Amino acid sequence: MTTPFRSGGWRPCPSPPPACPVSSGPSVGSEVTAAEASDGGGPSGPDQVHPSAAHQLSGDGERTLRGKLAWLVLAALVLGLDLWSKQVCFEPLPEVGRTMLVEPWFGFTKVRNTGMMWGALQGMGELLRWFRVGAAVVVVFMMISTAARARLLQLSLALVLGGALGNIYDGFRFGSVRDFILVDFDIRFFDPFPIFNVADSAISVGVTLLALGLLLEDRRAARAAPQK
């Protein structure tokens, strides 16, 4: 008599049938189990993350963290440059008078500013100190919540943060902000131009870039939106 086998097709088998050897080929159950294991099926398949996918997610997270740390380093460099310039340029200046480097357009003069640019909020140093601290906290939160690849926005926020920290240091350390950079280009509406420092410059450039970045993001989102 002959008996069919899955693994080898038809071949002779002695009687009685119980004497036939058991096939060594894979059973249906084992084939299903192998298939389930290969495509992530089975009881625990859907809950498992493929090792390569987990490695990719980990790599993306590390790159994002490194990117944001790089922008924080830039903010620290702005802070360091501001404090260094104040120590080197502001401190040696005489209390009264100007030291012109490019007559009559550019020079240094010593000013202790208890307010903001253009003389705003003079004498409100205590309020301004905490206002700047709050603004710096908001900027840090924005840097964390903004994608590291959004370079223009991150650059603007890093400049604003570094400048804000420089003026915060002055406010708590000296009770005023050390300004010393003098420019006079005889431009209408900007004459006289307020005395400023490196921190003020970083903040001004950062705010301008931030506005530009937000405008570009709005235009990009408008182009990507479906047309009705």
Give your account of this protein's structure:
By secondary structure, the protein is an alpha+beta fold. The protein has 2 domains: 2-37, no CATH class; 62-224, no CATH class. It is built from 5 helices and 5 strands. The protein has helices at 28-39, 51-90, 125-145, 151-174, 198-224; strands at 2-5, 9-12, 98-102, 106-113, 177-183. Strands 3-4-5 form a 3-stranded antiparallel β-sheet. The protein has a two-stranded antiparallel ribbon with strand order 1-2. The radius of gyration is 35 Å and the shape is globular.
Keywords:
single chain, 228 residues, alpha+beta, 2 domains, 3-stranded antiparallel β-sheet, two-stranded antiparallel ribbon, 5 helices, 5 strands, globular, disordered N terminus
Total DSSP E strands: 5
Question: N-to-C terminal Cα separation, in Å?
Answer: 76 Å
Helix content: 40-55%
Q: How many DSSP H or I helices?
A: 5
Q: What spatial order of strands do you see in the largest sheet? A: 3-4-5
What is the overall pLDDT average? 79
| SSE string, helices as H and strands as E | EEHHEEHHEH
Please sum up the structure shown.
The protein is an alpha+beta fold and 228 residues long.
List the helices and strands and how they pair.
Blueprint: E1 2-5, E2 9-12, H1 28-39, H2 51-90, E3 98-102, E4 106-113, H3 125-145, H4 151-174, E5 177-183, H5 198-224
Antiparallel strand pairs: 1-2, 3-4, 4-5
Helix pairs in contact: 2-4, 3-4, 4-5
